[in-house]
Amino acid sequence: MYPQFPPGFRFGMSTSAYQIEGAADADGKGPSIWDTFTARPGAIRHGENARVAIDHYHRYAEDIGHIADAGVHDYRFSFSWPRVLAGTGFYDRLVDTILEAGVRPVPTLYHWDLPQDLEDAGGWMNRDTAHRLADYAGTLVRRLGDRVRDWITMNEMSVHTLYGYALTDHAPARGLGLEALPAAHHQLLAHGLAVQVLRSHGAASVGVAGQHFPVTPASDDEADQFAAGLFTDLTNWTFSDPILRGTYPNELVQAGVGVPEAQLERDLELIGAPLDFYGVNYYEPTMIEAPKEGKDYTGVLEVDIPDGLPFSPVPVKSDERTDFGWAIVPSGLTEILVTLRDRYPNLPPVIITENGASFHDAGPGPDGRVHDPRRISYLDGHVRAVAAAIEAGVRVDGYYVWSALDNFEWAAGYDERFGLVYVDRETLDRTRKDSWYWYRDLIAAQHRG
Ligand code: FCB
Which tens digits make up the pLDDT trace of 21-71? Predict the structure, then answer.
């Protein structure tokens, strides 16, 4: 039995440009910060890079077939900013192919692949980058706005800021610690400016995709509660509070973003402009404690939080983990949706813009199939968690699986397979996994009213 969703609920699949396209130099495309970062020895597991990735740039027609045949309503992908600077021809063809397949394109403007020359000029630490993003948004909406009606401005500004600017695990690997907060503000400003540009060119529906997760203190101890509160402020609310209630969550963050007061007020007004939907990416919850002297915290999160910060992640209690080591806690998705609803009286309808799991699937066996029962169980648990949130009164209008196809999982390279479609690393051949068939059947089993 498949869970039932309200009529009009939209199922989809998600990808991002850098993780699938490859064709690193095609069309005269210049490098992004990820091309630079992946070339650095030791940056990526097994020294892998995404110069070819899964060659979606050349195989997009086949890939859109895999997406459309599952019966999804929406396909979320992203534009490569450096490719767009060299021309929009690829995205013209891609959008036409998506529409011809009967699917709604839901592109993201920015999914982490900043043009390297903008990074050289300061990247997201430079306020001007926000204005450059607005220009880039203008190019795209002028070129594609006749066919694309739904737009997502930015992907996971929190992860980009934390891993790329505060730490060194992702591009551009700045390692600025709390000094990275201006990068958060400038991305938020970019979001606000992009909303303005998209709307002024008639975009019908505009949203943003944020990563959210419940943060639980490891104990009732006051120090642990304080540490967990600070961590959730920095990772969850620093990014959604300005958008959904026009403020920063606390004075530390507000001072840290380093914007003079009069300017800050104007920026926050722009950043807080109403949205048509709010995208939530959810993978796993986090547990935090105040650092205990002499205790080793390495390997708990995908990246290590350096010593000296006032919080430390501890393993979440969960019997089940993905092959990436992430805790499997579907109820965390219901919980964060209810928390968002309670925190933001003006929360627009939510779309789950990413949810999924990495398992190290084996390639097709003698029966030609890729059996991935654990992914099916993960997805089944999480779509039920969405249904439970709807039951609890949260308005959720859609759910997109991360990801349509196995792809380049950032610093973890290609070992971590999130796809509904298996991609052979040697031949790049695609095979629909059992989870693809499960998803197709879930969608087909909805009573469309
Ligand atoms: C999210 C990213 C996405 C993908 C998944 C697994 O944080 O937005 O690109 O890597 O995690």
Answer: 999 999 999 999 999 999 999 999 999 999 999 999 999 999 999 999 999
Distance CA 363, CA 232 (A): 39
CATH of the domain at 153: 3.20.20.80
Interatomic CA distance for residues 220 and 313, integer angstroms: 15
Q: For ligand 1, atom 2, name the residue with the nearest CA.
A: 156
Mutational test site, ligand 1, from 152, 154, 156, 324, max ligand atoms within 8 Å of CB: 156
Q: What pLDDT digit, counting tens, does each position of 89-120 carry?
A: 999 999 999 999 999 999 999 999 999 999 99
Beta-carbon neighbour count of residue 139 at 10 Å? 14
Ligand 1 neighbour 91 (Cβ under 6 A): no
Give the residue numbers annotated as catalytic, written as ranges.
156, 354
pTM: predicted TM-score of the whole model, two decimal places = 0.98
Range of the domain at 99: 10-448
Residue 3 covered by a domain: no
- Domain count for the chain, please give it: 1
Contact 241, 247 (CB under 8 A): yes
**1 occurs within a structural domain:** no
